[in-house]
Amino acid sequence: MGPLVDVDWLRQHLHDPELRLVDCRFSLQDPQAGRQAFLAGHIPGAVFLDLEQDLCAPMRPDRKGGRHPLPDPEALATTLGQVGIGNAHHVVAYDAPPEGGMFAPYLWWLLRWLGHERVSVLDGGITAWKAAGLPLSRRPTPPPPTLFTPKPHPEWVVDAEFVAQRPEGTVLVDSRAPERYRGEAEPLDPVAGHIPGAVNRYWQEALEPSGRFKPAEAQADRFAGLEGELVVYCGSGISAAVNVLALQLIGKPARLYKGSWSDWVSVPGRPVAQGEG
């Protein structure tokens, strides 16, 4: 199974006993919006996982680790087990692309980081489900709790020290909007700009206007010329997962700087670049 499934596949497999469907909708501007949207109508059988309450550790007072720190593997495993996700289940994550299309890919990355390979993103998310005229439910029906045993891949994640001293040939990919990369706007973090040497590949350019992922050929064009080890970052390590998934579609592995820009600027004196390049 690849990293994406479409609405037709999900419709056919919605009642498979091994399927676990996770609603990941969230808003950085309104942290309650995702849960409220879930209660107002979700794909039948889905459980809800909250980005900040369930899928990240709390932000530290000094902001080190960024706005959405990597969760403790055992704590995350407990959360997954509580909503009925075990090691044998096929997890399908969805959100509401295109604007809210970063959260399901983040859960896809997070589960794979935990050693769970049976995970996919619903291509087009609940937006595509609704467009197909398929039903929604307002009644949460969580499966019974189970056990999830994590087998994390620490080598998939890098920290600020690695980024600062990265080996020659490492390509640093900034996934934020171009105006944030250039330092012309910064709505979330106290310093504007980008890590020196990073190239910009905006995460939303991985998606069609419909919110579905562009085909592999288009993803290859987006990343053409980037050779060597790829390290991807964004504002807090969430939207960068979209680019990690896009790279997966063309067979290119990438590591994640999970703390990302919000971690980088948590220490005064780290170098900052603005403009192009």
List the helices and strands and how they pair.
Elements: E1 4-5, H1 7-13, E2 19-23, H2 33-40, E3 47-48, H3 51-54, H4 73-82, E4 90-94, H5 103-113, E5 119-122, H6 125-131, E6 157-158, H7 160-164, E7 171-174, H8 178-182, E8 199-200, H9 216-222, E9 230-233, H10 240-249, E10 255-257, H11 260-264
Parallel strand pairs: 1-5, 2-3, 2-4, 4-5, 6-10, 7-8, 7-9, 9-10
User: In total, how many beta strands?
Assistant: 10
Overall pLDDT score: 97
Helix content: 25-40%
Query: Structural class of the helix and strand makeup?
Result: alpha/beta
Residue stretches low in confidence (pLDDT < 50, at least 5 long) are none
Bin the strand percentage.
5-15%
Radius of gyration: 18 Å
Form type = globular
Our count of helices gives 11
Task: Describe the structure in your own words.
Strand 2 (19-23), helix 2 and strand 3 form a beta-alpha-beta unit. Helix content is 29%, strand content 12%. The longest helix has 11 residues, at 103-113. The protein contains eleven helices and ten strands. Helix 5 packs across helix 10 (240-249). The chain has helices at 7-13, 33-40, 51-54, 73-82, 103-113, 125-131, 160-164, 178-182, 216-222, 240-249, 260-264, and strands at 4-5, 19-23, 47-48, 90-94, 119-122, 157-158, 171-174, 199-200, 230-233, 255-257. The chain is α/β, with parallel strands linked by helices and 277 residues long. The strands form two sheets. Strands 1-5-4-2-3 form a five-stranded parallel sheet. A five-stranded parallel sheet has the order 6-10-9-7-8.
